[in-house]
Every structure is written in structure tokens, then in C-alpha cells.
Amino acid sequence: MIILLNEEMKSFEDLASSFASKELSPHREEGDRFPFGPFNNDILAKAHGVGFLCITLSEDLGGIGQGISALCVILECLCRMDASLGSIIFTSTLSQEIIIRAGREDVLRNITSSAGGPKDLLIAFPAYSNPSEHSSLPLATKGKNGPMLSGAVNYLVLAGIASRALIPARISGQDGYSFFLVDLSDAKVKISDPIFSLGLHACPAADVKLNNAEATLIGNEGEGKTYFEDASNMMNAAAAAMSLGIMRGAFEDALAYCNEREQGGWPIVNWSEMKMILADMAIKMNIANMAVSEACHAIEKKTYGWNVCAKAAALHVQESACHVTTDGIQALGGYGYMKDYGQEKRFRDAQQMKTLLGSSPMRKIEFIDQLNVEG
Amino acid sequence: MIRNSEVKSILNRFPKFGDFSIGLEYAPRLPKGIIKETKEIVAYVRKFNDEVVRPNALPLDRKTHEDPDYLPYDLMKKANDWGLYTMWIPKMFGGKGKNLPSASFAIEEMASACVGIANVVMVHYLGFSSLLTSFNMRVTNRIIKDVLEGEKNGGPCLIAFAITEPGAGTDVEDMELVDRGKVVCRAERVNGGYVINGRKVFISMGHVSEWTVFYAYTDLKKPSQAMIELVVRKGTRGFSLGRHEDKMGQRVCPASEIIFDDCFIPDDQVLIDSYSIKKFTGRSQEEVMMKHFDMLASSSKAGVCAMGVGVARGALEEALKFASETEVKGKLLINHEWAQCLLAEMYKNVVLGRLAYIEANNANSHRGIYEMLQMKPIFYYLKYMPKSFFKMLSPMLNMNMTTWAMSTMYLHMKKSEDVNLTSGTSSLAKVAGSDLGIRNCQLAMDLMGEAGLRHDQGVEKRLRDSKLLQIYEGSNQMNRVTLFKGLIAPFFSQARVFNEGREDGI
Ligand SMILES: Cc1cc2nc3c(=O)[nH]c(=O)nc-3n(C[C@H](O)[C@H](O)[C@H](O)COP(=O)(O)OP(=O)(O)OC[C@H]3O[C@@H](n4cnc5c(N)ncnc54)[C@H](O)[C@@H]3O)c2cc1C
User: Fold this and answer.
1) pLDDT of residue A3
2) What is the pLDDT of residues B97-134, one digit of tens each?
3) Which positions in chain A touch B167 (Cβ < 8 Å)?
């Protein structure tokens, strides 16, 4: 990535790349069989071991104290091989960032200090939607020991593996929504079987039903939208970095295959139509690289319009990744459609990622509304 | 106003009027009975969808994820019971003889519910078409008898089609390429037949088909002049099934590796070889095989387009249902203007795709492989003659004279201008239909957001299924070249296809 300006970033890149090739690559196909095969706890434990589950948390909170650039570098390198672990990291980081913006570092400190294993660190979140778009969020009421939540949360990412979830809910009689932390092992929380989805199979998700489940209010009542938007403004760059990683993997595999596979008596890379396809892929990937780098730079320097820049990067890169991964399969012909090559998985994962933080048309509408308001 | 001779010469300039007004020219020749028959078929397939396809589409896809070795015997049995495996086999062979263009409408219907299941039913017709376009009436008649028998006794007898080899996918589809490719399926002439060695890959329904039509080469160094077409029965010594591929989509329809290991194929299972070509056509082997493929592909590519249209339509139906039931920001999605435009775009794609396969079939009916069966007198004759008449006729199909007459008409006399038109138009349809199939799935997924990601909503499966349409029946890149070759290059004498690399002696 262009943001690899310093040694520190380079060392994160090396770490994540070697993790991806040692730990993710050999298990990619097998991990993709979830929920019809086992979830690979070992990979999660190893990711925890190198600090990937708390990248942006300060050392004081038990993290490794990095900013958006390191997060993006790591996510890109992981997703280049297999995007599922990246999505686990993304989801939990999003939850952590919301909690920080809500001023509840104490909650995070408790979580990290008492964690017995990686699952205790993970905080589930409905990462494929913007709570503002939902007409039926769970309802929060006052119980004896504090707030209680009732209702359904669809597509709660990490439910089934995380110990806790950050849940948006409405408080009756109030506008907007608030965030609550819920213990997923509570008997009043019913978690469905894992959702069988298009992509990112090894990043589990489930539907959850809450029936007066005890919860902790995170931040101020009714301020959920502000925290979500603040956190997602930054996390847009991370979402874009993941899609960039997928694009890079798809392009590299396509290029290597086209140099090897012969049709018409020579490597297919020599057919000028194939060069066009590869060039389109490479151009989209390079532009995505610039967009992610620029977004990281803008976020870290808090330059004017950084949030707009990050959102535009996410929307653009996610769309591009769908095109690039489609071509990624095409370059391999019939083999690209088979599960023993990584391309079909990238195609599914890229399409799935396009919905991170909400459906892309709704995010586009919000984007223009935001620009309009901010001038 | 303008002289007749002038009209003709002006309209023959590029773009040639006749090439883009096929439907207009064909309309007066269309037997009206086809319309009623097609309507009945569409209604029948909709019923099949309600009773068989829709209830099975998602559960079976899920099952193939739980058990990647699953094979669709139950589905085949149902399709067989519904008479779908003989529906488009002409009456002269004992089939139900429904008009062949109606198969595309049926495919669209089935694919709108599940394109994988549509393939379980319709790939059999790719096998059948490869028999038919060999014009070897005797062998075709023999295989079809098994299919009919299978329908009668409830044990489906299907025909697979195998040309792709591990090292040669695109290369085996064009005679310009095959000599530069790495084909390995070798046929050695022996007393009374051929001995085959080699492998084929990605053969749809290979594991479950009774018969497989396949191609091999008597000379691996000059395959364009040594390609032969044969048919093998499951269980034949030396013929075995290898990998059952683990695919992204259309999982209910297996893709198989098939292996020939000193497999003897007797002469009465040879469809085309140098001897039959000499006997029946008087053309070169290369020319005959190219015509055979062009005619075969002209009908099957219209079918792939129809699959794309079906997927696109299914995605639209799914999106419409979702949009009319789901509120976003306090308002039903269907009442958001952006969603209305997106749905309109999807609708437009479906209609344009449908026009593309209709036009490809018009070309096939007017100047291609369906020409004879679609002629008014023949169509009505076949439609209304009693079954007993065709039974009486059947022995004639086994006569050399019949094979000679059909081969002469199609493989010898068919004008290259007609072949160019039908193959170019069907490639156009294939590319258009498959591209817009994917496009509509992506648009539906955009509209549905998080819900669209879930297997139980169906649309993500459609997306996975649809990607295959851009790959099989020739990659879309290959089909663009075929379109260029058939519809554009004839007007530009400088144009050469697949010429890159020749400068370097490749
Ligand atoms: C699920 C599935 C089912 C199938 N079913 C059948 C079946 O029933 N029977 C059967 O015989 N086959 C079948 N096929 C094979 C299918 O037709 C081939 O996969 C297809 O023709 C492409 O060949 P390939 O996979 O070898 O790709 P390749 O030919 O290796 O192509 C790889 C890439 O190179 C490009 N390329 C190759 N040559 C050129 C060129 N000259 N110019 C420009 N680009 C080029 C292609 O467009 C493609 O993008 C099936 C395939 C799949 C995946």
C-alpha cells in the first residue's frame, strides 16, 4: 500500500502477509465449508496471539495502539488470502470504536483484562446494516438491575463465537437509538443456527432474539447514531482496505494463471483481449490502492472532508472489487469457478463486503445528503 | 423511388439489413401453430416450477453444500416423469416433437426458478443436439430409443456432451485454434471401431448420464483434420468417472471428469469420422466439424442466453417481492424512486435478453439447424400425423440414404453465409444473456442489502449460479470473437481472427 511510508507499517505488512500465507492459506477451503464444516478456532487464537483482535485499542486498553493505517495494512494483507478473518477483525474493531466514541473505555478495559481467550475479546455487531435504516430495532426498557432488551437482531455478525454483542436499540418514548452491550451467554438471548450466506463463511453470523436480556447502556441515550456514524466514518477506510486485499489476491492469481495456462499455443496472457481484462483489473486495483491510502492519510491527519473521502473510497473500492473478482474468475475459465481455486470465493466475499455498514444504494444516498449538508 | 437492384446492393452493405431483421423476414414463414404450442409449454413448465423446481431449489443447493457428492437422481426422475427428456425430441425419433425454439422459453421459465435445475433438465438436449447435428440418423435413432425407453420404464436415460479437455477448453471450440492446442483424447483405429485414451473435464451431468457424446482425435498433431465424434455408454469397459467438481454454483448439476483408458468404441457408436465424412459429404473433415459445431452451438447458445434471462427474471421477481414488502426509512422500498429505476433497469435487461434469444432462434429457424422442422408443411405434418406413422418411418432413419440426405443438406450444402449468421447471432445472445443475468443478480443484491446475502432469500444463489453462464458454451471472450467472425469479419476482407501469435510462428 502506498501508506507504507515507514518501517513500522512495513513490519505490520510483513507480519500480516506471513500470517496469511502460513495460517490462512492452508485452511482457506476448509474454513469456507462453515457452517457445514467446523469453525477454525486455532486461527482465531493465533490472530489473538499477534494482537490482531485489538489493533486500534490503546496499549492501556490492552490493544496494540495502532491507527487506521496499520489496521488497513493488516486487513488488506489478510484479505488478499482469505477475507473471513479480516471480517472478524473488522466487526469487532467497529464495536470497539463505537464504544470508545461513546466514552466507555472502562468497559473495553474490563473486557480485555478479564478475557480468557479470543472469543471473550470479540464483540458482535450487525455490521451489514445501518441501524438508522431499520424500522424494528429491539426495545430497551428499565429493569431491576438496569436496562433490558427485547426484540430481534438480524444478521448479528460474530454471534455464535463472540461472548458479547453491541446492540442498537430504541428506548420507548425516545427518538433515535442507543447502544447496549449484551452478554450473549445470557439465557434470555436465543442465538439461531449460523446463517448460511453468500460469502465470508468463516466469519460466522446468526439471528438473535432477546427476551428481557440484561444490558449495559453504552454512551448517552439516543446518541447511537452519532457514535455509529463517527466510528463508521473511520471504518469505511478499513472496509475499503479489505476489498482492496480481495482485489489484489484476485489480480495476482489471475496474472499468475494467465502466464501459466496455454491456449492457442501460447500462454493466454499473450492474447490481447486477455491483456485488456488483466489491465482493467490492475487499473481498478491501483486506483483502489490510491483511494485507500488517501483515505487513511486524510483520517490520520484529520484533513478537511476526511470522512467524505473515506466513505467515497469504501463505495468505490467495494464496487470495483465486484468487477475485479468477476474478471478474476473469468481469467481462469472453468477452473475459476471451482472451489479448489480461490477466485470463486473472492467473487462471493467481494459481493458480500459491498453491504458492510449498510446497503450500497442507501449509503450512496446518505453520502450525497451528507455532502449537501456539509456544503 | 429506388430501383430494386439498388435496394439489394445497398442493403447488403455492412451492417447487412438481413442480419439484423431476421425476425422480420422470418415472421411470414412462422407456422402459427408454434405460438399455441409454445404457450402450452410455458404453462406446463410453470406448473413444473411450482411443483418441482421451486420447492427443491434452495433445499437441494443447501444439501450439496452439506454433501458435495450429492447427485440429482430424484430430480432426474421427476423431470423424466414429467416427460421433459423427450419433449423436444422430434417425432420422427419418437419424441414429443415440440418446436425447438420453444425450448428456450422453457429454459427461461425453469431458470427463473433455478438455473441449476434447468441445467439438470436441459443439458440432455445439448447431448441430443450434438447427436442431431452429426446427421448420423442411425446412431441418433438408436440412442434416442434408450431415452424413450427410459421415459416409459421410469429410469431416466440422459445424454451428456463432452468436448473440453484438461488442457484445452477454448482451443477445442474452434478449428483455427485446435491445432495449436494441447488435446490428449486420442482415438486409434482398430478392427471394428476405435480405442480411446484420454480425459475430459467439467462434463455437465457426466456422472448421471447413460450416454455421453464425445470427441477424440485420430492424430493429436493435426487435430483439426482428425477430429471424430463418438458416443459411449456408462459402464463400458475402459470408461470411468473421475472427479465430481466442487463448484461455486449450479451445484445441483454435477460437473464430472470422464476418463478413457483403452476404451473400445465400436463402429456403430461412431457419429462422424473421416470415413463417414467421405461417404456422406465430400467436404474436408475440418470444414464438416466446424459446421457441425457452429450448428450445434447456434442452438445451445440461444439456450444459455435463455438461462441468463431466466436468472435475470428470477432476480427481478425476488427483488420486486422484497421491495414491496420491506420498509426502509419508514417507506416501502418500492416507493423509493431510486428503487423504481433499479427495478425498471432489471425489467429492461430481461426484455432485451429475451429478444436476443428469440432472434437467435429466428436465425436458426430461418437459415439454420431448425429450418427444415420449422417449415410450415413439415411442422404441421409432424404435428398432426399419428404416432404409428412415425413408428413406420423409424426404420428409414437407419438407412444410409437418410444420413446421406441430411448430411448433404446441412453439412455439405449449407451456405457459410447462413452458418455465419446463426453462429454470430447465437454468440451475441449468449454474451448478452449471461452478462445481464449476472447484472440483475447484482442489482437485486444491492437493493436487498443484508437480506440478499442470506441463502434462504435465494438471490445470492442466483448470483453464484449465473457466473457459470459467462464461462461454459465458450467463454464470453471466445463468443465475442465468434460474433466478430460471423457478423462483422465477412464484410472486412482484411479481418482475421485468432491471428495473434501466428506472426510469431505459433
Ligand atoms: C461447471 C461447468 C460445466 C461445463 N459443462 C461442460 C460440458 O457439459 N461439456 C463440455 O464439453 N464442457 C463443459 N464445460 C467446459 C467449458 O465449456 C469450458 O470451461 C470453457 O469452454 C472454457 O474453457 P477452459 O475452462 O479450459 O478455459 P480456458 O480456455 O483455459 O480459458 C481461460 C481464459 O482464457 C481466455 N482465452 C482462452 N483462449 C483465448 C483466446 N484465444 N483469446 C482470448 N482469450 C482466450 C478465456 O476467455 C478465459 O478467460 C463446463 C465448464 C464448467 C465450468
Assistant:
1) 62
2) 999 999 999 999 999 999 999 999 999 999 999 999 99
3) 262
Question: How far off is chain B from A273, nearest CA to CA, in Å?
Answer: 8
% chain A with pLDDT above 90: 92
Residue A8 is predicted with a pLDDT of 85
- Which residue lies with its CA nearest to atom 50 of ligand 1? B202
Give the model's confidence band at B136: pLDDT under 50 very low, under 70 low, under 90 confident, else very high.
Answer: very high
Closest CA to B462 of A34, A348, A329: A348
Instruction: List, for residues B182-219, the tens digit of each pLDDT value.
Output: 999 999 999 999 999 999 999 999 999 999 999 999 99
What type of residue is A15? Answer: L
Q: Which of residues 308-367 of A touch B (CB under 8 A)?
A: 322, 326, 329-330, 333-334, 336-340, 344, 347-348, 351-352, 354-355, 358-362, 365
Cα gap A188→A150, rounded to integer Å: 9
pLDDT at B404: 85
The Å distance, Cα B56 to ligand 1 centre, comes to 29
Q: Could you tell me the domains of chain B?
A: 17-155+287-491 (1.20.140.10), 159-278 (2.40.110.10)
CB A271 less than 6 A from any atom of ligand 1: yes
Q: Specify whether the backbone of B330 is left (phi greater than 0), alpha (psi in -120 to 50) or beta.
A: left
Question: What is the B462 CA–ligand 1 centroid distance (Å)?
Answer: 21
Q: Is the C-beta atom of B158 inside 6 A of ligand 1?
A: no
What's the rounded Cα separation, in Å, for the pair B430 and B309? 10
DSSP B371-390: TTTTSHHHHHHHHHS-HHHH
> Average of pLDDT values for B148-153?
98
- The CA distances from residue A5 to A76, A230, A251, B128, in Å, are 16, 26, 24, 62
Task: Out of B177, B247, B475, name the one closest to residue A264 (CB).
Answer: B177
> Which of B205, B475, B496 to probe ligand 1 with, by most ligand atoms within 8 A of CB?
B475
pLDDT band at B412 (very low <50, low <70, confident <90, very high): confident
The cell for A348 is 462471493
Radius of gyration over alpha carbons of chain B, in Å?
23
- Tell me the pLDDT tens digit for each residue of A341-353: 999 999 999 999 9
Q: Which residue of A has its CA nearest to B468?
A: A337
Return the H-helix or E-strand segment holding A267.
Answer: strand A266-267
Q: Rounded to the nearest whole angstrom, what is the distance from the C-alpha of residue B248 to the centroid of ligand 1? A: 15
pLDDT of B328 strictly over 70: yes
Closest CA relative to residue B303, chosen from B414, B427, B200: B427
**Interhelix angle B459-467/B54-66, nearest 10 degrees:** 70
The answer to whether residues A9 and A63 touch, using CB atoms and an 8 Å cutoff, is no
Measure the CA–CA gap between A217 and B498, rounded to whole angstroms. 67
B202 chain-A contacts, CB cut-off 8 A: 334
- B430 C-alpha to ligand 1 centroid (Å): 14
Q: Which domains does chain A have, with CATH numbers?
A: 7-118 (1.10.540.10), 123-223 (2.40.110.10), 225-374 (1.20.140.10)
Contact: A264, B463; criterion CB under 8 Å: no
Contacts of A138 by beta carbon, 8 Å cutoff, 6+ apart = A149, A150, A151, A152, A153, A167, A168, A169, A170, A210
- State the Cα–Cα distance between residues A87 and A148, nearest whole angstrom: 29
Which ipTM did the prediction report? 0.96
Does the pLDDT of residue B246 top 80, yes or no?
Answer: yes
Q: State which residue of chain B sits closest to A267, comparing Cα positions.
A: B501
Ligand 1 atom closest to Cα of residue B126: 8
B161 touches ligand 1 (CB under 6 Å): yes
* Residue B105 β-bridge partners: none
Q: Are B41 and B98 in contact (CB under 8 A)?
A: yes
Q: A352: which chain B residues are within 8 Å (Cβ-Cβ)?
A: 453
